[in-house]
Amino acid sequence: MNHQGLLSLAELILPSEILSNFEVVRVEQETSLIRIYLDESVKMEYKETPNIESKGFCDAVTIRDFPIRDKGVDLIVRRRRWYDKQACRYFSETYNLKAEGTRYSKEFAAFLKGVYGNDSYDLPFA
């Protein structure tokens, strides 16, 4: 599948919460893993505010999501780092994308908990 096809497919399967705040910038496919790279979008309110400017990205965070066709799926998420010139401070938006205390997406963690309970043993695609 070509690069544009993979991007389109990723946009179809990702939760709306992610798609409303992040852009799919790249998709990599390996034998047993699909990596979807996401960068935080620039919000309209920040585009219209000259005192706030993007200063690159914070370190990427990897979130494990639902597998697709027996392949693990990792979401590689980068949040923007913003600078407010008026307040002379840096800040980043906070998103609730993963289950607390895990590296799983909220939806995938809830599914695994429902199937396996609270047992801490090797889970598939973990």
Considering the chains and any ligands shown, give keywords for the structure.
126 residues, alpha+beta, four-stranded mixed sheet, 4 helices, 25% helix
Describe this structure in words.
It contains four helices and seven strands. The mean pLDDT is 85. The protein has helices at 3-13, 16-21, 44-47, 106-116; strands at residues 22-29, 33-40, 52-57, 61-68, 71-78, 80-84, 89-91. It is globular, with a radius of gyration of 17 Å. With 126 residues, it is α+β, with helices and mostly antiparallel strands. A four-stranded mixed β-sheet has the order 1-2-5-4.
Helix and strand composition category = alpha+beta
Average per-residue pLDDT, rounded, comes to 85
Low-confidence stretches: none
* Main beta sheet strand tally, sense and closure: 4 strands, mixed
Total of DSSP H or I helical runs spanning 4+ residues: 4
> Which word captures the global form?
globular
The number of E-state strands comes to 7
Share of β-strand residues: 35-45%
Head-to-tail CA distance between termini: 26 Å
Q: Give the SSE string.
A: HHEEHEEEEEH
Biggest sheet: strands side by side, in what order? Answer: 1-2-5-4
| Share of helix, binned | 25-40%
**Gyration radius from CA atoms, angstroms:** 17 Å
Give the SSE map:
Elements (H helix, E strand, L loop, with lengths): L2 H11 L2 H6 E8 L3 E8 L3 H4 L4 E6 L3 E8 L2 E8 L1 E5 L4 E3 L14 H11 L10
Parallel strand pairs: 2-5
Antiparallel strand pairs: 1-2, 3-6, 4-5, 6-7
Summarize the structure.
The protein has 4 helices and 7 strands, in the order ααββαβββββα.
